[in-house]
Amino acid sequence: MLKLNHIVSEKIWGYELWKASTHPNGCQKELLDFAGGDYPLLVKVIQADDVLSVQVHPDDIKARELEGCRGKTECWYILDAKEDSRLIYGMNGNYSEEEIKDSVRNNSLEERVNSVPVSSGDFAYIPAGTVHAIGSGIRLLEIQQSSDITYRLYDWGRGRECHLDKAVCCIKNLEAQKIVQFGNKFDCPYFSLEKLSTKEKDSLTIECHENDGPLSTALIFVLDGEGTINGENAGKEDIFAFKSGESIQTQGKLVLMKIIPYSCKS
Questions:
Q1: How far is residue 11's CA from residue 262's CA, in Å, rounded to a whole number?
Q2: In 10 A of CB 86, how many CB atoms?
Q3: 201-254 pLDDT per residue, tens
């Protein structure tokens, strides 16, 4: 077991805590060594004190074509949200590339996107190619492919570089899934999530989907509660790495998110 220390990334809209990362832009060497190489996932806690840019990430094919690296599919678990907090989540219709570019140029993009209210415990799956933005007053857990590619469509006049041509060519008019409270499990081609609640004393066994290498490393993120995990203090937003087959002994009542990487065959 390895308890990880996060890396802080300050932003003009708030900050990110890179909780588990072997990405070159924020690498935890201890995780790199523990996993035995490049870990395919990047886990963050994002604090949005102001709205983020409206953006899109490329899929694996577009990312290899444009940047020579993996794409970025991600998901969000809302940890906390102020009243009336919202996400931009997908387009509200099928628009041509030129229609999208025109709406950016004439500041009417908001008319073409879905704005969705959220609250603590809500979950959003964001496949690569989905137009999205985090609204102000939201703190969330983000699980994503280990990629740092963001193409900004629109940045609310803050003067940062936007990437209109690249962003538009990556947009897929995917039908956004409904944002609902997270259930017990979620699976996609890149990762598996499972929410667990422990008793005063409990034991678990980590099972991954590969026998060796980075894919044999799972993560446990503490959503809530206080206690210990294998004798280490465990509190809200702590994260631990485990090898497949490793046993976990917990004390205290904890709400955990188990995160297991998949090898995408698509």
A1: 30
A2: 18
A3: 888 888 776 566 788 999 999 999 999 999 999 999 999 999 988 889 999 999
Check pLDDT > 80 for residue 130: yes
Furthest CA-CA distance within the chain: 58
Residues whose CB is less than 8 angstroms from the CB of residue 88 and which lie 6 or more positions away in sequence, other chains included: 54, 113, 114, 115, 116, 131, 132, 133, 135
Residue 64 designated active-site = no
User: At 130, which amino acid appears?
Assistant: T
Which residue out of 139, 152, 158, 160 is catalytically annotated? 152
CA distance linking residue 253 with residue 239, whole number of Å: 16
Cβ–Cβ under 8 Å, residues 115 and 172: no
Are the C-beta atoms of residues 180 and 123 closer than 8 Å to each other?
Answer: yes
For residue 34 the two structure tokens come to 């523990």
DSSP for 139-153?
Answer: EEEEEEES----EEE
Q: What does the block give as tokens for 223?
A: 């959503």
The secondary structure of 73-128 as a DSSP string is: -EEEEEEEE-TT-EEEEEESS---HHHHHHHHHTT-GGGGEEEEE--TTEEEEE-T
- Considering the entire predicted model, what is its pTM? 0.95
